[in-house]
Amino acid sequence: MSKKNKKKRKGQSKNTTKKKETEEEMLKRIEKESRQYNFPSENDPEYSNKKIEGKVERKQKIKGKQGSIVLALLEQLEIGMELCRVKLPTFILEPRSFLERFTDFLVHTGPLNTLYLTDDPMDRMLKVLDWYFAGWHLTPAGVKKPYNPIYGETFRACFNHLKSGNGITRIITEQVSHLPPISAYYAENRKLQFYITGHIYPKSKFLGNSAASLLTDSSKMDLHLLSHDEHYFIQLPNYYGRGIVIGSMYVEVAGKPVIYCKETGIKVKIEFVAKGFFKGHLNEIKGEIYKDSKLIYTFSGYWDDKIHYFKNNKKKEDKKILFDIKKLKHNILYVPPIEEQDEFESRRLWKEVTKGLQNDDVDYASESKLALECKQRIDRNIRSQDNTVWETKYFDEDENGNWIYKYINKAKFQENEEIDPPFGKPGLPIWEENLRQRKKKNKIKKTRSSSKEKSSDQRDEKTRKTKKLRKNK
User: Fold this and answer.
1) Containing domain of residue 165, as a range?
2) Where are stretches of biased composition, namely Basic residues (predicted)?
3) Which of 26, 169, 259, 377 is the most buried (most CB within 10 A)?
């Protein structure tokens, strides 16, 4: 037998007789990996878990100078017109890109953590609903609109569940179209055996005293559960900014979205109830759950408080809790440092506008926003003159108009799978390059510091020798 074959055999036998790590060793390894990936500490005030205290009043009054800006804005508007071409006043902006808004849906992944371990199809759908209702309460005070993403803009982030043994949830979003404005997104967690893909195309309209962002018919979300080969088709409700002309400004979620799983035949009809002018309550919700067209459960409540469900043939007294906002636990969002981001990544792209808004310097924020929009127009004109087509980075459009992530891993999770670094996923060369560059920099720093130490030691030795010689003389 040749030496090469012997070496191979030895390597194979080593793998098979690999010692299984203890729980203590696993926890140590996870802590080490958490530090290695520079995840923020849970005590860091910037990333600390926010307390949920039931219903929240989200109304905003317009101050003096801001009122005149709103009047200038109203001069541009006509009832029924689309808002994608209207310039909004800077004070009304939320200091983050619309691409980052998708992460709100994954701040609370609690119900998804055990989805792959749940055997009953109806229990799985109830957990999907629990997760879905958790994604709406993170709206800012008043009517705050995130930045309109620039064509080709991307945002990447992840949630760290290493300490709980649930791996890492990675997120990537991209602005794949300018007009109409379409944002595509993808999220995955290999350990929890799910991935989410979809796109958001908000059709914005002015309705008099309200501005609407219509999502139900134009946007879609798909949750794929690899462990059970299930696909959940999820619609989104509509957003309304109320009180733009008269009264206090607030956001209302309303509409009749549907969640459907083809493999199990379970369908959920949801109604986000719009508050009436004289009566009714904000954030009210009701709906029905069907199995093969047969009504099984009815549910009702408030998505910023509690939602109960009960069997169709039973009394309302036998209701069970479907969703409780007080039991939600926030995951910590990790975003790479700005200096490690690509020039078209959201936080780096909008950093000057964000700086102005955070410092209450509306003029500086407006100037920075204008400069960014001018650059975008110039780039668009150059592309049209050269007849160059913009190529999307992470998503491709299929024949049905759906935006599909290029690097989806549809294989079922294996227990011996290695935990990928949060930004070292195959198919994402920029993330890997950033990781390599960081390691290179650290190596260079170490070699420089070690060489400095050596040179300083040599100098000290030389001075000691010269002093000794002088003494002897």
Assistant:
1) 59-405
2) 1-12, 437-449, 464-473
3) 169
